[in-house]
């Protein structure tokens, strides 16, 4: 059965890019526009992997990850952070929040799928 | 990814850019207005950041470069190191304009004013404390840093890269001991093993010695360690890459062919790469250090990494919840939306139009066949009609959009015109959420732009004049929209000097637009500015000139089935009012008979209908007739004659007079033979096949299948006044 991936990004362009790349790779994709929306989506539909942006309105990536990790149902879901900032500070903050890995934007579809495989097999 | 996908993405990107730019400008204007809400600053930052992110994916380097400089300044503001006030906001607004231009050029092609970009770039650079030159000089570095790369590779992605020729098989020995933090972040040793297995042949040995007795076992602790033997042709980089995400969350040693790594590699480039990487890692380690140190050797390590940051994220979460509440008014964010091709909606709209016509025809046929006498059939028909209407309204609602999209373009225009004319202007917009058909919105942009230019250029006085007249130095332009009586009404009001009537009059006389002895009311004088060929500026100014006059504005509004009117008070200002239909697809009309033809008169023009008494109709020179109504004399226009349906004037006593109001509020009476009824009709344009037909706005199909022409009331009235419709249409074509 194909894995379900939740993508959380406030940019429609980025969401569509992720959608195309992930669908091409055979994943089932759920979408959310910010952290709050992401948490709402997770309430109804479990995800096998979560890909989230950092800079988002309402609830940013760090806060979103914190919330997901606090929830017993989702604490073991791998979370990849998607960001244009490749600097160490952002990565380290994301990891403190509970991120499993990261993808540097803009991603190459191959890199994207690689990263997913590396956290979810 | 297929090329068509890329095109679609590009389109989405530019659509999104438009939205981000609107948000950016709206946010900056709020900041300019004195708002210190952090959420607005964040939104502004995100808008630029998003544009940059997308632009990077499409390798739009000019855009990325400028957005980066812009974003850097906004980041300073966001971090509270730069106060967004006064000169700074002005620079940011200018930068937003440049960004918008760059997006436009990226989308449509064309040239950009490089010197202007550089100037604004420099200004931004000086604000952020980064020398502006660096912004321009190190684009490569910036791009690299962001890792931009166009997404153009064809999937499937599981294609293996072609293996180098006869690569040497290396034997790696990997010792791997996860910390609890590795598990806490949802990393899985088994997944990592599988990854290693993809690289080559592996043998795994698990060390279970550290597992404590059950009573002492922490379910979230880390007790297992593995030794993995990997035979592969892949480089050590690739092997280490597998552990990239768990670096710092585990003890990891990798030995190649029995030697601890760091040993000489057969390829020099690899060694070089590694040294570069290690340098970077060292820097990163400094940032990572506290967390990395906290994790090891603590059975309850899970608490350790999460405790220090717990304070910050909590505050973060509280803040975001707060901002979530604040934004709760903007339910649009939470409401799911879909994007639909406009063509599909239009097709649906057309089909619904046909459905409405068919429904009307069916009802009529059933009536004619006498079937509608049965109450069951009748109530069925009623329901059908109601449903059809609901569907129609539903489809029209899809096409409806708030006027915000047009209104939002105006602040920039106002800034530019104000700067060019040396006037001080404040723009106030109201009713941005008022919805109207998308096409109406699109076609509103040009007339509105022109009218706002006029309001500033011709309406508002120079600051010194205003002060001398006891007004505020800053002129006010108010742009507002509201729904009124099934139409959208848009006001463009200024608090300037008002229309200079003596001057308007003398210009009209000079240009031969009116006879010198013409008796005109104030209102009629004001309306002279809508005449073709009228231009109040003695020299065509750069701002509102451009060879386009108010007549063009009026014509484009009329083409939308709208009307323009003016009210002006000397010294107090002028208000231009546009009244437009909410949709271009349907119209409520009165179906009338004229010389055996069926015509539809739009209800919006009709004031009342009456049966004229012959005693009230007076001949007035030649063929013209007037009708006396409550002590007013109104021109009585014989529609049949006017449209050329008949040569002889109809008998007013046998017909019906329809009192209409045409543009500028002038009233006239249209003489028709009889009224068939009122109904909603679906508008079918004639222009594609017949061009503009004088006196006729469009056509429709009635319930009985007959085609009926929809009367263009303004044109008929104007035509009768000028003597002939064809003269009017010739003028229109000449324009």
Please characterize this protein's 3D structure.
The complex is a heterodimer of chains A (121) and B (735). By secondary structure, chain A is of the alpha/beta class. Chain A has one domain: Response regulator (Rossmann fold, 3-Layer(aba) Sandwich), CATH 3.40.50. Helix content of chain A is 45%, strand content 20%. Chain A has helices at residues 12-24, 35-44, 61-70, 88-97, 109-120; strands at residues 4-8, 28-32, 49-53, 79-83, 101-104. Chain A has a 5-stranded parallel β-sheet, with helices on both faces. In chain A, helix 2 (35-44) runs parallel beside helix 3. Chain A starts with a strand and ends with a helix. In chain B, the strands form 5 sheets. In chain B, strands 15-19-20-18-17-16 form a 6-stranded mixed β-sheet. A 5-stranded antiparallel β-sheet of chain B has the order 2-3-1-4-5. In chain B, strands 7-9-10-12-11 form a 5-stranded mixed β-sheet. Chain B has 5 domains: 3-146, HPT domain (Four Helix Bundle (Hemerythrin (Met), subunit A), Up-down Bundle); 170-294, Alpha-Beta Plaits (2-Layer Sandwich), CATH 3.30.70; 342-401; 403-581, Heat Shock Protein 90, CATH 3.30.565.10; 586-734, CheA-289, Domain 4 (OB fold (Dihydrolipoamide Acetyltransferase, E2P)). Chain B is elongated and about 120 Å long. Chains A and B meet through helix 1, helix 2, helix 3, helix 4 and strand 5 of A and helix 1, helix 2, helix 9, helix 11 and helix 12 of B.
């Amino acid at each position: 059965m194909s894995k379900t991936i939740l993508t959380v990004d406030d940019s429609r362009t980025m969401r569509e890019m992720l959608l195309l790349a992930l669908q091409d790779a055979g994943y089932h994709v759920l979408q959310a526009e910010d952290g709050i929306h992401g948490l709402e989506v997770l309430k109804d539909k479990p995800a096998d992997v979560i890909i989230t942006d950092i800079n988002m309105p309402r609830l940013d990536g760090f806060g979103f990850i914190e919330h997901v990790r606090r929830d017993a149902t989702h604490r073991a879901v791998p979370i990849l952070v998607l960001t244009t900032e490749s600097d160490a500070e952002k990565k380290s903050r994301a990891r403190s929040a509970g991120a499993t890995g990261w993808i540097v934007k803009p991603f190459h579809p191959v890199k994207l799928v690689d990263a997913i495989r590396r956290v979810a097999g | 990814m297929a090329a068509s996908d890329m095109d679609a993405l590009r389109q989405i990107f530019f659509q999104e850019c438009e939205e981000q730019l609107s948000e950016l400008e709206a946010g900056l204007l709020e900041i300019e207005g004195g708002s210190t809400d952090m959420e607005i600053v964040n939104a502004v930052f995100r808008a630029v950041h998003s544009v940059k992110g997308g632009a990077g994916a499409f390798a739009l380097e000019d855009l990325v470069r400028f957005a980066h400089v812009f974003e850097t300044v906004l980041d300073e503001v966001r971090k509270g190191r730069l106060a967004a006030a006064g000169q700074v906001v002005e620079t940011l607004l200018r930068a937003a304009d440049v960004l918008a231009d760059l997006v436009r050029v990226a989308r449509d092609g064309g040239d950009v004013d490089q010197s202007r970009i550089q100037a604004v770039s420099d200004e931004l650079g000086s604000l952020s404390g980064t020398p502006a030159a660096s912004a321009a000089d190190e684009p490569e570095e910036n791009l690299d840093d962001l890792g931009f790369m166009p997404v153009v590779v064809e999937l499937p992605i599981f294609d293996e890269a072609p293996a180098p020729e006869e690569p040497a098989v290396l034997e790696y020995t990997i010792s791997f001991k996860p910390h609890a933090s590795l598990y806490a972040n949802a990393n899985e040793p088994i997944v990592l093993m599988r990854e290693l297995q993809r690289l080559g042949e592996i043998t795994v040995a698990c060390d279970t010695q550290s597992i404590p007795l059950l009573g002492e076992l922490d379910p979230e602790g880390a007790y297992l360690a593995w030794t993995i033997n990997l035979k592969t042709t892949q480089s050590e980089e690739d092997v280490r890459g597998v552990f990239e995400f768990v670096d710092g969350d585990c003890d990891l040693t990798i030995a190649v062919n029995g030697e601890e790594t760091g040993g000489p590699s057969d390829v020099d480039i690899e060694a070089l790469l590694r040294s570069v990487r290690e340098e970077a890692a060292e820097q990163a380690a400094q940032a990572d250090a506290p967390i990395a140190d906290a994790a090891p050797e603590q059975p309850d390590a899970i608490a350790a990494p999460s405790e220090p940051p717990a304070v910050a994220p909590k505050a973060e979460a509280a803040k975001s919840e707060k901002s979530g509440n604040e934004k709760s008014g903007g339910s649009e964010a939470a409401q799911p939306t879909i994007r639909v091709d406009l063509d599909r909606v239009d097709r649906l709209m057309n089909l619904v139009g046909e459905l409405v016509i068919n429904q009307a025809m069916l009802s009529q046929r059933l009536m004619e066949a006498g079937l509608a006498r049965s109450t069951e059939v009748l109530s069925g028909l009623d329901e059908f009609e109601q449903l059809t209407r609901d569907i129609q309204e539903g489809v029209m609602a899809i096409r409806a959009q708030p006027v915000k999209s047009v209104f939002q373009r105006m602040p920039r225009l106002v800034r530019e015109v104000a700067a060019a004319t040396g006037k001080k202007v404040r723009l106030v917009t109201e009713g941005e959420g008022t919805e109207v058909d998308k096409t109406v919105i699109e076609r509103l942009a040009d007339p509105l732009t022109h009218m706002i230019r006029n309001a500033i250029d011709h309406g508002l006085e120079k600051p010194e004049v205003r002060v001398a007249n006891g007004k505020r130095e800053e002129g006010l332009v108010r742009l507002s929209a509201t729904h009124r009586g099934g139409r959208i009404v848009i006001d463009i009001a200024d608090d300037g000097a008002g229309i200079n009537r003596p001057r308007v009059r003398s210009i009209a006389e000079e240009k031969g637009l009116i006879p010198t002895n013409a008796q005109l009311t104030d209102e009629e004088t004001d309306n002279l500015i809508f005449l073709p060929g009228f231009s109040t500026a003695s020299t065509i100014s750069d701002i509102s000139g451009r060879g386009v006059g108010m007549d063009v504005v009026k014509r484009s509004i009329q083409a939308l089935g709208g009307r323009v009117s003016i009210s002006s008070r000397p010294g107090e200002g002028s208000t231009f009012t546009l009244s437009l239909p909410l949709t271009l697809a349907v119209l409520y009309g009165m179906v009338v008979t004229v010389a055996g033809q069926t015509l539809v008169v739009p209800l919006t023009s009709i004031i009342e209908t009456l049966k004229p008494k012959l005693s009230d109709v007076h001949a007035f020179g030649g063929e013209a007739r007037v009708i006396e109504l409550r002590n007013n004399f109104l021109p009585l226009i014989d529609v049949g004659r006017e449209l050329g349906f008949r040569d002889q004037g109809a008998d007013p006593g046998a017909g019906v007079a329809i009192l209409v109001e045409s543009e500028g509020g002038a009233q006239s009476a249209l003489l028709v033979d009889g009224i068939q009824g009122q109904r909603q009709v679906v508008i079918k344009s004639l222009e594609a096949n017949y061009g503009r037909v004088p006196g006729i706005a469009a056509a429709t199909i009635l319930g009985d299948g007959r085609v009926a022409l929809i009367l263009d009331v303004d044109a008929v009235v104007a035509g009768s006044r000028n003597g002939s419709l064809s003269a009017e249409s010739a003028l229109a074509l000449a324009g």
